[in-house]
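Run: sequence + flavin-adenine dinucleotide -> complex structure.
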Amino acid sequence: MANFYTDNLSIKHHLHHPLMKRIVELRERNFADKDEFDYAPFDYEDAMDSYEKVLEIVGEICGDIIAPNAEGVDHEGPRVENGRVIYAAGTKENLDATVKAGLMGINMPRRYNGLNFPVVPYIMAADMVSRADAGFENLWGLQDCAETLYEFGSEEQRQKYIPRVCAGETMSMDLTEPDAGSDLQSVMLKASYCEKDNCWYLNGVKRFITNGDADIHLVLARSEDGTKDGRGLSMFIYDKKSGGVDVRRIENKMGIKGSPTCELVFKNAKAELCGDRKL
Ligand SMILES: Cc1cc2nc3c(=O)[nH]c(=O)nc-3n(C[C@H](O)[C@H](O)[C@H](O)COP(=O)(O)OP(=O)(O)OC[C@H]3O[C@@H](n4cnc5c(N)ncnc54)[C@H](O)[C@@H]3O)c2cc1C
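>> structure
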């Protein structure tokens, strides 16, 4: 019955920082959600109380489920079958537990079924998950790709994808390629617009993608013909339900083995532009 929140008094320091009052006010926009959602806080103390309660749940799941699973997950690791990633049994159990406890989309607005947490308690939760199993944090923590989608996606895209993340679907951020790592301006994966189908198609290879078989991907791709640098790149959303992306292999890493680091092949994968063209 370990609890990674209650057994670590120093982590609470972040929640009691003097700036939290202002952070909560800004996040809750003067507690405007209280009339619409019965679980929304009505003042600062109420908000702090809800963070405490959720962090205690995170601490319990970390102590009782994720940490005890960590060794088995590291031994078993994920594998690829028919282009799809199969997680280790413990990883599936960890994900189920966090989804059932409502710990996905933690900092997404309530209107998309999130908890609307500020970054501070979210990162405190991430800290505990990392302590339990750093590999699992790599995967669970990708829920913050939803933040990018929220920031740059259209309202239609927000409504389409963010509730799915809050319900437990996973995400990935597909940037790196065999010839584009630190120098992301060299990304080559091609995005072509098809007038007939009125949509974009992605073709190319991505490498080192954490949780590369995610349900929803954010993909950096070259949308502008004849360009060579960052000015020809745009961000796309790929939905696994559309098909067109296979996992070719998983890296054999020295640690965080439970987190699948994938090489992906995009073959005419249908995608939506996220934000403006040319970033
Ligand atoms: C476990 C893991 C998970 C990852 N997950 C993701 C993910 O989810 N999504 C994603 O898109 N990518 C992911 N990556 C890829 C990661 O972002 C890249 O590895 C990183 O950007 C570096 O690129 P690279 O490996 O091609 O190395 P390179 O860019 O080739 O760098 C190799 C070495 O050269 C050095 N170097 C590079 N450029 C310069 C320079 N101009 N001056 C001096 N030194 C330089 C670097 O510091 C490094 O030591 C992951 C990588 C790992 C290892």
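>> summary
The beta strands are 79-81, 84-86, 171-174, 190-194, 199-210, 216-222, 233-239, 245-250, 261-273. Residues 172-273 form a domain with the Butyryl-CoA Dehydrogenase, subunit A; domain 2 fold (CATH 2.40.110.10).
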